[in-house]
């Protein structure tokens, strides 16, 4: 499919701003540039309530912003969400407006976690933060107005990497019990020697570039050996059995598209439901462009998938997922 007009207009806007390649500037500049994405997110959608809290992490407490969705009957999932930004940028503010819309759309209590970022904290620090936050929030699910049996771990881009890694950690460490995982344009294996076509086809020209991913991985990993660790690169795990059912969202114009699609295949061949939804004409950052058509479709797909995974009492799932 051709690039969607909304995505093309966004890239033209960046061109007019003379935005430098993300791999060509320092970490502070990347953080500032990523924060600028909030300008294309529209007005914040009201939710029932927002609470700022903290949970214990490996090296100190971690900030968490909790979104209570518009009221609706029945038990609500708890979705623990990790923002993107190449492990070096992004924060809860970057995903504030997308998560307001998502909470209202799907009816989940959404807990947005602020984890330590690279290069100040390299692997495994952010992954351990993610796991610790999930464990702590799972214990507080009822206090947050959610059903502890409906725990969903989610993330976008580098946050999708952390979500997938935390699911592996939870499996290997005996809990907490994660009922489902939502991975949005996740980075699941290092860029170096990637065999996937999308890494070549969309290497340049679509904001998230191959060079940028190489730069982000270099800043995230503390040593070359870490590149093969399954908690850093979940795609490379020897076993994908025993993981939570997954919904994986991919953008057509994204170097990471094919590795995320492959992860869904690996899950399915391991006996784990792994649904993949592709958004034709979309960029890697489509979920953050929360007023876009692709983001709207994604929220509808997430809502339908969650309702299938967690049907109301007495209601059978509508389809396999």
Features:
alpha/beta; disordered C terminus; 9 helices; 321 residues; globular; single chain
What's the topology here?
Blueprint: H1 5-16, H2 27-35, E1 49-57, E2 60-68, E3 78-82, H3 96-106, E4 109-113, H4 125-139, E5 151-156, H5 158-173, E6 180-184, H6 197-201, H7 210-220, E7 246-253, H8 257-269, E8 274-283, H9 293-309
Parallel strand pairs: 3-4, 3-5, 5-6, 6-7, 7-8
Antiparallel strand pairs: 1-2, 2-4
Helix pairs in contact: 3-9, 4-5
Produce a short descriptive summary.
This protein is α/β, with parallel strands linked by helices and 321 residues long. 34% of the residues lie in helices and 18% in strands.
Task: Describe the model.
By secondary structure, the chain is an alpha/beta fold. Helices cover 34% and strands 18% of the residues. It contains nine helices and eight strands. The protein has helices spanning 5-16, 27-35, 96-106, 125-139, 158-173, 197-201, 210-220, 257-269, 293-309, and strands at residues 49-57, 60-68, 78-82, 109-113, 151-156, 180-184, 246-253, 274-283. An eight-stranded mixed beta sheet has the order 1-2-4-3-5-6-7-8, with helices on both faces. Helix 3 packs across helix 9 (293-309) and helix 4 (125-139) packs across helix 5 (158-173). Mean pLDDT is 94; it is low at 314-321.
